[in-house]
Amino acid sequence: MTDFTFHTLESSQGETKELLSSIQQGYGFLPNLFAYMIEAPTSVQAYLMLNDLLAKTSIPMPQLQVALLAASIENKCDFCTVAHRAIGKQMGAEPASLNALNNGDIIESDKDRAIAEFTISMIKNRGFVPEKDTQAFLSAGYTQQQILEVILIVTIKTLSNYSNHFTQPKPNAELLNML
């Protein structure tokens, strides 16, 4: 296994230090994901830009967090699974939906279940989503625009989940305390 450097504000300089400082100010702490991902500053910049764009989608924030969690679980990313359970709670996602998704149980909320299942189908089928899955998503009240926005969700989760597969960050105490 390749060991990646865990960067801190103290061990960084220049653009790297500025990015980490900005992230720490935004979150109130430095998520360990970024301490490793900063090895490639452009990857961090891409992640931050994609995250800003996610906030502009037409998908309501609670369902956005459910989809991010679904992608993280499907991609087997422990760090992001903890992060989106914690952040999802803060962003108004239904705790019952987050818990059901995390435990592999049926999600009771129709909207949450539809976006979770569609996101998982998108990943499992590498974008070749079966028509029945697409129709189930649309029948739950989602739109064609939101199909394309789920692709954006899968994109950001591919970047962070795959980075985490290599770097294996531990969930921060701050995230764990939000659960």
TrEMBL record:
SUPFAM superfamilies: AhpD-like. Gene3D superfamilies: AhpD-like (1.20.1290.10). GO terms for molecular function: peroxidase activity. Keywords: Oxidoreductase, Peroxidase. InterPro entries: AhpD-like. This is Alkylhydroperoxidase AhpD family core domain-containing protein. It comes from Pseudoalteromonas denitrificans DSM 6059.
